[in-house]
Each structure stands twice: as C-alpha cells, then as structure tokens.
Amino acid sequence: MELVKENIKKLKEYKTNKVSYRIKLDANEGKNLLFPDIQKEGISFLEGFNINLYPDNDSFLLRSEIGKYLNINPNNIIPGNGSSEMIELVMKTFIDKGDIILSFVPTFSMYSIFSQIYSGRFIGIKSNEDFSTNMDTLIKKAKEVNPKVIFLCNPNNPTGYLTNKDEIKRLLDNTDSIIVVDEAYMEFAEGSMVDEVLKYKNLIVLRTLSKALGLASIRLGYMVSNQDIIDIINKVKSPYNLNAISQYIGIKALKNREKILAYIEEVKKERSYLYDNLTKFPIKPYESNGNFIFFKSNVTGLAKKLEKEGILIRSFSGDLEGYYRVTVGSRWENEQFIKSLKEIFKNEES
Ligand code: PMP
Predict the structure, then answer these.
(1) Ligand 1: lining residues by beta carbon, under 6 Å
(2) Which of 157, 242, 325 to mutate to test the pocket of ligand 1 (most atoms within 8 A of CB)?
(3) With 0-12 CB in 10 A as exposed, 13-18 as middle and 19+ as buried, what is 350?
(4) Ligand 1: which atom is nearest the Cα of residue 185?
(5) Residue 184 Cα, ligand 1 centroid: separation in angstroms?
(6) CA 182 / ligand 1 centre spacing (Å)
(7) Strand blocks (E) in 143-219
(8) For residue 208, which atom of ligand 1 is closest to its CA?
C-alpha cells in the first residue's frame, strides 16, 4: 500500500543555509532589539502563566497587547506559531482537494508549498518585467478560475513591491474568494489593510513579530480578520498552539512602541543607503518597501562568493536565476557587504 500522499512525494524539504557566517543577510530577520531588555529583567511569569499548565489557549493577554499595537479589537486576532502557521491554517480551513489558490509570482514560496501539501492547485500570475503587478490581470484570472483563496504578499517578498490599498480594495470588490494579505513587512511601508477587516467578509491580514520586532526565534505571528472568519479558523487551530514563553515575550516586546518605531526608521534609512550603493555597481536593484532589497547581477555564483567572505544573502534559481535578495542590516553590516561586493567586482574585471 502506498502510504505517502502523491503531493507530498513531489515536495522538496524547506532547507535553511547551515554555513558559518560573520554577517547574516539572507532571511530578512530584524535586529535583536527588544529581547536584551526582557532578558535583563528575567522571565517572571505573570498571573495566568504557569509552566506546568498548558498555556492560555487563546492568548488573551497577548491579543490585548497586539490590539493596542494595531489599534484594533483583540477579538479579531488569532496569534500562533509564526505567520507560517497562519498561512497553513488558511489552507487547512478553506482548501479541499483540487481547489485553486491564486497569487502573483514571484512571491513567498510557502503559499505554493502549503497549497501542494493540502492538495490544492496553486496558480501563479507572472509579475511585470519590473516586478510590479497588474491587479486587472489578477481580477480577470480570479473571475476565470474561481479560486478559493488569493494570497497577496504586501510588501512582496522577494521583490519589495508594494500594492496600494485602493488596488486591494478593488480586488475585494471584485471577488468572493478569501483574500489573504500577508503583511509580514508592512511595518517598513505604508498601506496596511488591518483597519479594513471589519468592512469585508473575505479579508484576512497576516502579521509577524519576526521582522520589525526582531523576534524570529520565538515564532510569533498572527492573523486579523472579521468575527466570522476568526470563529471558523479557531475551530481548526490546534489547541494551545502558542507556547507560554512566546506569549510572554510577545506581550513584553509589543509594549516598546518607541523603540520599534525608531528601528523601523533606521531600516528605512539603511535601505536607501544600501540601494544607493547598489546602483554604483553593474547591478540592477529594485526599489523595496520591505527590510530587504532584491537585485539582479550577472556575476555567476555571487552568493557563493559572498559566502566565502562570511556574508550570507539569498539567491534564487529557475526563472529567477541571477537574482538575489539582501536583508537591510546595520550600517556596519551594510558597509561590509558593499566592501565585499567591491572586491568581487574588481576581481571580475581583472
Ligand atoms: N510571510 C512572508 C512574506 C515572509 O517573508 C515570511 C518569513 N520569511 C513569513 C510570512 C513567515 O514568517 P514567520 O513565520 O516568521 O512569522
């Protein structure tokens, strides 16, 4: 008897870069900004947190803190194990075998991977030559194929392209599909759809603490949606999906609004610095609204060459061969990256 699902056999494992490095700019992680203070204070469990008991199943205190952070009602929030869990929850809840999932491509790879795991059919709509996207094409395709779910990564990973709110509203007005707006990088841009969730019956917004809050290791993300969708997703969510320590750290971290905002400003400044410097090379960088920059280079094996200098960036293959994504680091990290690029390009010329 064949035990493994056909779709799973075809799947490739999600592999991470396991090499040693000096500077890590390959996974869009934020700086270790908030944890040192929490560590200094020490973890003293608040009332309701007991390590021998299961954690709060619906993360009540954390939801109120997220509610304050976004100025929304905590009842419209479900937190979980990274926004990755939220993407999976959407698939689990809405995708039956053969259902269609639509998205622009290139985009975050987990939308198509989870589609495959849940036996859905992922259809990617090609972005324009400059990696901008055309909403009319998406609306037209949605009318044609009737997708259950449409994913919009905004700002988009890896291209950095930002779809404006009016365009997303136009999509919402033209389809009944579930529209998931993945705002993992929205803190670095403007145009969140979080305020709009109560106005639509089919809108889900995903956010994470892995980027602007620099807490990728605690695996904490959340979804925001209307009450009907929240109630349905809560039926599907695993019990106690978010451990008590992550809930605790999340609550403490989200209180640091000033620090978070200052860091966002730093990233935006460094993003301009990095972009300006990249234009000085025979490289084509794309303007980004995230904490990373996508670029094209004709140097073969550029990421491997940087890796030899201890610097990790993300490289792509297939249709995106020759394209790279570098996370915006601190000024020192960005300088080191630029310095290594200079060396590499000098060697290419000689
Ligand atoms: N969405 C996007 C667009 C991402 O880039 C990432 C992380 N690379 C995630 C979701 C997942 O983030 P996490 O699970 O850490 O919240």
Answers:
(1) 28, 82-84, 108, 153, 157, 182, 184, 208, 210, 216, 221
(2) 157
(3) exposed
(4) 3
(5) 6
(6) 8
(7) 149-153, 178-182, 203-208
(8) 16
Residue ranges of the domains in the chain? 6-32+258-349, 50-255
Q: How far apart are CA 148 and CA 103, in angstroms?
A: 11
Q: 111: CA distance to ligand 1 center in Å? A: 11
Whether 128 and 136 have beta carbons less than 8 Å apart is answered as no
Q: Could you tell me which CATH number the domain at 6-32+258-349 has?
A: 3.90.1150.10
In the reported structure, the alpha carbon of residue 291 is separated from the centroid of ligand 1 by a whole-number distance in angstroms of: 12
**271, 116 contact by CB (below 8 A):** no
CA–CA distance, 150 with 159 (Å, rounded to integer) = 18
**Ligand 1 centroid, distance to 1 Cα (angstroms):** 36
- Decide if 99 contacts 91 (C-beta within 8 A): no
Identify the CATH assignment for 50-255 out of 3.10.300.10, 3.10.20.30, 3.40.640.10, 2.40.50.140. Answer: 3.40.640.10
| pLDDT, tens digit only, all 350 positions of the chain | 999 998 899 898 887 878 999 999 999 999 999 999 999 998 876 665 678 899 999 999 999 999 999 999 999 999 999 999 999 999 999 999 999 999 999 999 999 999 999 999 999 999 999 999 999 999 999 999 999 999 999 999 999 999 999 999 999 999 999 999 999 999 999 999 999 999 999 999 999 999 999 999 999 999 999 999 999 999 999 999 999 999 999 999 999 999 999 999 999 999 999 999 999 999 999 999 999 999 999 999 999 999 999 999 999 999 999 999 999 999 999 999 999 999 999 998 87
